[in-house]
Amino acid sequence: MGDWGFELTQAHNNLVEHNYIHHIGQLSRGDRPILSDMGGIYVVGNQPKTIIRHNKIHDINALRYGGWGIYLDEGSSQILVENNIVYRTSHGGFSQHYGKENIIRDNIFAFGQTTQLHRNKRDLKKSREGNFVSFYFENNIVYWQEGKFIAGLKKEYQSHAVFKDNIYWKIDKSPVSFGGLNWQKWQKGDRNSQIIDPLFVAPLQGDFRLRPYSPVKLGNK
């Protein structure tokens, strides 16, 4: 089992793969959801060699916060999150409360309502105190229509985190604030990432296969 914080727990070497998870948090009162703080896949604590991969997650909903697709809660560390497809979430495809040395790569995060990614301010505080890399966000596609790109902190998202080789695309092509920074400033700490349409087959219908003439080749989607 997992536990809050960085101490080693009994949870390690777990494999969470090939799950189809959808329509979580749909209980509502009128037109408002009544639940908060949840994820399609939720983990907590230091879990060396745990892998979350090849999962399809969509339609995760929450009231105040916590409608996340993949949710790394307090102390989540040494976890590999790869080749997942997450879409239509109320609060973002990926969230990290605080953790260290997590790898988030080759995923598709799409159609977050209020935001696409979430990093809790405690993640920055803990990583500064321990002087470690909180997470590596690499080779992902972030694709959205509304809401922020990232939420949780102010202009310090890249501190003690590594962003590189990602694809970002907002459907309406409007200017995007990357954690309070414009693209030119954000790009200084996000190596080789691009703003470019990945050309999915039919993303609004949940088909995130890449067309043959797509300009990107990311992971095994």
Provide a descriptive summary of the structure in words.
With 221 residues, this protein is mainly beta. It has one domain. 7% of the residues lie in helices and 46% in strands. The protein contains 2 helices and 24 strands. The strands form 5 sheets. Strands 1, 6, 9, 12, 13, 16, 19 and 21 form an 8-stranded parallel β-sheet that branches. Strands 2-7-10-14-17-20-22 form a 7-stranded parallel β-sheet, with no helix packed on it. It has a 5-stranded parallel β-sheet with strand order 5-8-11-15-18. It is globular and about 45 Å long.
Record keyword descriptors for this entry.
eight-stranded parallel beta sheet; 7% helix; mainly beta; 24 strands; 221 residues
